[in-house]
Every structure is written in C-alpha cells, then in structure tokens.
User: What shape does this take?
Amino acid sequence: MIELRDFSYTYGTAEAPALTGINLDIHFGELLLVTGHSAAGKTTLALAVAGILHQEIGGHFEGNITFKGRDIKSFDGIKELSRHIGMVFDDAESQLIFTTVEEEIRSGLENRGLPETEIKRRMEEVLELCEISHLKHRAPHTLSGGQKQKAALAATLALDTEVLILDEATAELDTKAVKRVFSVLKRLKEAGKTIIVVDHNIEDFLEIGDRVILLEKGRIKEAKSPGEVKIQAGPANSETHDKEPHHARGKGEPDLSPPGKKNNPIISVKPIISVKQLSQRYEEVRALNGLDLDIYPGEFIAILGENGSGKTTLVKHFNGLLRPHSGNVALKGLDTVSSPIHELVKHTGLVFQNPDNMLFEDTVEAEIAFGLNNIGVRGQKASEAITRSLELVNLSEKREAFPRHLSRGERQRLAVACVIAMRPELIVLDEPTTGLDAEESDRMMQLMRKLQQEGHTIIMVTHNMQIVRDHAERVIRMEAGKIVEDFTSTRAAEGGIPA
Assistant: This one.
C-alpha cells in the first residue's frame, strides 16, 4: 500500500539527514508500531508517509515514496492526500484551530461535502468513541493536554480515512483513555484500516500490532514481530489507585520517604506555596473547586489525576499565569494576584505540557537567553548559565540549532533548560517525560533529583507512574477540580500505588 525505497530526507536548514536509506513496505490492513529513542526520526517518518514533507514542509529528498502505486509527490496537495491518510500529530494543539470541539470535527466533514445527516452521525460516533461528548461545546484552548489529544483524535477518526497515523497521540492521556484508544484501534484494524502508531512506549499496543520497526539515528535498525519485543518491567503509564483511606500530610509531619530517597532539607514551617480556597473557572466549567494546599521548600511532589481533573490549571497559579477566580495563592508570601508576573517567575519556573508553547526564538541559545534577560541576567553570567543548562539536559551540541527542527524530546529538554537556567526555587514540570524514551525519562528525573539536592522544590504533573514510584516523595491526586488524596511516598513504595 505504502512503499518507501531508498528514502532519505534532510530538513531545509539542517546539516545532517533526519532519515537515511529507508526501505519499508506498509501493507493494507496492517498495524505497524514505530519506536526508537528521541531524535531517531520517528516523527519525520510519519510526516513522510503522510505526504506532509513533500507537500508542505519541503527540504532535500532522495529516493521515493508511493501510495497505492502512485508517487506521493503527484497528489494535488495535502487536501487530496488527506482523503486517504489521516494523522494525529505529537502536538495535538497545532491541529485545533476552531472555537469549539464540535466545530473541529464538523469542519473536516463539511469540507468533504457530506450531507448533514452523515455529518451528525459521524460526529456523535467519534465523540462517544473518544469519550468527549461532554466537551463538544468547549473551546479547545480551555481543554487539558489529554483532552486536546482526544479532540484531535476524534476529528481525525471522523474522516474515516484508509490510513491512520498516530504520532505520540497517547502521550498525555491517562490510563483509562489509553485503554480506550487501544479498543478503538482494535476495532479499526478489524474493519481493515491501515494504522501506524509512532510512540516511545509501544507496550500498550503490542497485543494488536503486526510489526515493530525500531529506528535509530534516522535508519531502520530492525523489524520484529510484537512477540519478539522484550517488555520492560513496570509500565511507563499506569495510573491505578488504591482504596486506602485518605492520608493528608500535616505541617509538622516527619520525613516518611522510603530508604534510599534522600530528602533535601528538613521541611520548613513556612510553605513556599500556600493555596487557600482556590477556585477557577473556564467559562461555565469549574476547573478548581475550593482547594487548600501547602507546599514546602525542598519537597519532590507528583500531582496525579485523570485528564481534565485540574492538574495543569492548579500549577499555572504558581507563577501567576492564572489568577484565582476566588480564593488566593501565595508564593513565598507574595500574593499572586497583586504581584507582577516578572517578579513571580524569579521564584517559580514552569515547564509547559506542550514545549512548543515556550519556544519562539531562532536558536536554542536565544531561547534560554530570553528568560535570563527578563530577570536581568546578561553578558558573561548569561553565557555561563546557558552553557550549564545545556550540559545538564544534554543539548550542548544543539546551541545554534533552530528549536522547531529539534525532535519532540529535544524540545522538551530545551524547555527544561530554559527554566533551570534561571535557577528558580520552585520548578514545576507539566508532563516532563512526554516525548522522552525510558532512558531519557530516567535522566530527566535524575536531573530533578540533583536540583532538589541543590535546594530546589520540584513539582511534576504526570501520568507516568513509574517515575512517581521511583522519585516522588509526596503524591497529590486530583479529581474533578479537587484534591482527593495527599500522602507521602512511603505508601506508594509499599504498594499504595500499584503497578
């Protein structure tokens, strides 16, 4: 169905090719799993198969790609190709451009010229499939990262294309949602669709996969059957919760972290963040509902919860990006309502769920320098801070690279570098391992442990339960805009958060 012959590709301003000598046949009705380390070329391969490299991005090509026996360059733009191939990007937000979720789905169907009855039927079907019927009138920008992925998936599924490509399309989904996507893909495969799943973590889909392709440095290293793939111990994205009684952590409670976890300083009596009766709304939707929370210097905290539970909304209050609808938030005694953001960001650094929301300069170096300049760090001190932060995230060789040409994982690491260069006391990471493979995720967490030991307070919003079990010293679980559990990691280590 899709054939790649001696295909190589180099982005316009890049010095080295992103893909080299790719020979691959993708068959009718096949579910192909594509994996590999960050910057291995996975997303580039997906864009090539979708025709987006040839039709939209450009660059230097060698070899050829054919779809159903026809050269992919001969199609009349993406509009013609999109009738056959649908793709959910690793950045779901970039696909959502309309004012409501319903319009996102409807627009593609109307462009096909379908009758209204068919449009309504498909819309209702995909909204139910992706479990977002209750979100159809919501503006996409008000959704959580996981909800945005569901909306992008629904809009793509509605088009009912022969080929479906998912590029890290479950990275920000909770466990329940990932299982739902699995059932949807299984159903589509049984209906004869050709499916390509690009992901660091393919374990969730091995059961229904036909082949696994491993990319390394832009080349196909090996192709295996799903049965030949070794599954790593401990799931990377499991979020099962126990039914033990709520255990809140009091101000004077002693350190209960398990042996081997080195808590930084004894918890101060004064919190670095104090949240009192915090409520927040998005239009008519209540995202937070009367939260009370104290966070102390030197803690390493994980915030958990299903998509839409209010996790990201909560942490955006910690640096003034959101101001309370009611209640108040104090950062080191500063009221976040009355204090200017440029003062708050000296104390709190937030790494966004989508790193692309932080990147807009022409070079990696300039991205980091921008934040430093805003807090008055310039010249030699800025240069030293940039060098150190790039070393910490293993991006020293990318100093002059164009940020948008980095892989998703590299962009994630760059976003972290931008924050840690400013050395804020509180570092907040929203889904810090999105786009990172297991090895990179571990390196990222080791970096956070190092920063904690240097005196920083670390808060991470995540669905990755392996890193919670391995690194978090306090766990906060949210549900429907409220904190429903708050406990020390002793409980997690003893089975309070089972695999």
Q: What stands out?
A: The chain is about 30% helix and 25% strand. The longest strand covers residues 285-295. Residues 232-268 have pLDDT under 50 and may be disordered.
